Amino acid sequence: MTLRADAPPATTRIHRFGPAQRWVHRVTALLMGVCVVTAAFLYIPQFAQLVGRRELVVRVHECAGLALPVPLLAGLGSRALRGDLRLLNRFGPHDRLWLRAALHRDRRRESRPAGKFNAGQKIYAAWITGATLVMLGTGLIMWFTHLTPLMWRTSATFVHDWLALTIGIVLAGHIGMALADPEARRGMRTGSVSEEWADREHPLWRR
What we know:
By secondary structure, the protein is mostly helical.
């Protein structure tokens, strides 16, 4: 079989994520989505009126919240996932340049150097991990009411509710950025991305 002379060249695909990274992301996203949706039905009056079995929604919310760390903990058996976590935990001089360009809305390619993960992705990963741990801790204080004093429970409820709202806003931004980048979504879905996209968005990525 021969290609036509005027046919566009085939796009080179390069490996970005293995099965472990993709499944951890999918299951965590599913659990986070369940937490956000059930929280909306529990705390927004217009949605709460639609729920006939509030106790069931509470249990689903609690179980999804308790299960949130499980996918990541299970995925730690993957060397590839551990390698990605190490990269996400490293913040170098090029990340500061990326952040400065993002703050100044400088979209020039050379002004936003990035390795496998850019500075925005690293900050998001760190923030959502910390927020999840805080939500888990405050949720446990609210759940086991007999183990903590009233002041603790009141404070935990305040932090839990407002942090939940913040998480919802941040997740909406995360989803919006993913929708604006089809190739990044394809990389998370299939595990591979085009070489042209990798060179443009992550020029310092050592593949």
